[in-house]
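Comment thread on ticket #2218

A.B. wrote:
> Attaching the input chain for the structure job we discussed in standup.
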Amino acid sequence: MRFWATLRATIMPVRMFLKAPVPGMRRRAKHFLVIFLAAGSPNFKAANAAGDAICAPVAAIDGPRSVVAPIEAILTSHGIRVSDDQLNCRAGSRKVRAAIAAHQDRTGFTLTTMDDSGRTSTRVFVQAATAASLIESWTLDEEAPLLAPPMAEARPQVLTAAPPPTVADDQRRARVHLYGGMETSMGADRSWWMGVAMGACVRSGPLCTGLRGRSTRDLDLTGASSSDSVMRTNTEILLASSWLFQTGGMLVAPTAAVGAGWLRTTTEGGLPQDAIVIEHGGLRVELSVLGRWPISRHLALGAELGGTWSPGARTTDTIEQRALLIGEPGKQARLSLFCSVTP
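C.D. wrote:
> Ran it. Output below, let me know if you need it in another format.
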């Protein structure tokens, strides 16, 4: 019975085509015959069972996000996918890869397009609509019309590239900062000091935290030490944290530091073995502002202005073994000139 039913269904459209007296009826019978034969083919059944569909072409764009986003928006509005996220697509959907690079002089962009067959094209553009049109033309067959007419834009969107990083940007983003140089200071007792300072810090976000040290000597030129009766040297080790930020072409770093210091006082005159030596240590607190002027990606010149407070300093004169020892400066104003390296 099934055999006769299949045979009857096969013969019926053929008889309709042969016996149709009117051209319109004959055309309808012919269409029915074609549809019937196609529906019975194994390829049609396999495709229908798998749920295959004809997908829109795909354009994968690589480049600066600020430039790629408006181009993708135009392509999406024209029916072109920007991600290959449809799995049940018939094999053969056109796929195009595009790479966008900004010009160093910020005058435009270079668009390099490549299709599945390996053909490439390189063009220069400024407007997003131009790049979208170039990419869209590659997703279609050579003789196929555009999927959608170009969008009417009252003001064409002109893309601008981000400025290339400066040497100040590179130094601000550096992980490790090393510095060292000469330092001079003036004490609260009007004593004038000179010496060296150095330090290192590791950046984490906007903060750069590390250690700094200094060694200075009283020049015996002004203030209480001008009598040249004692020799004083100062050594400090501090834990410092700086907030790095950029202004124009320079770096600025407000800094706070805390640590310990040792002031060594030695009397002068008489025999060396008769000299009296007093070492006094205590807390050191420091606030300063640092300015750095980069001259290359890894080298900069800088200056720092700040002040140090010694809350436990012996500020009054004392007499030890019938020798007068002048007091220590409780506060000092400092100026440093240094060289900074960011490896």
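A.B. wrote:
> Thanks. Noting for the ticket: The two ends are 90 Å apart (CA to CA).
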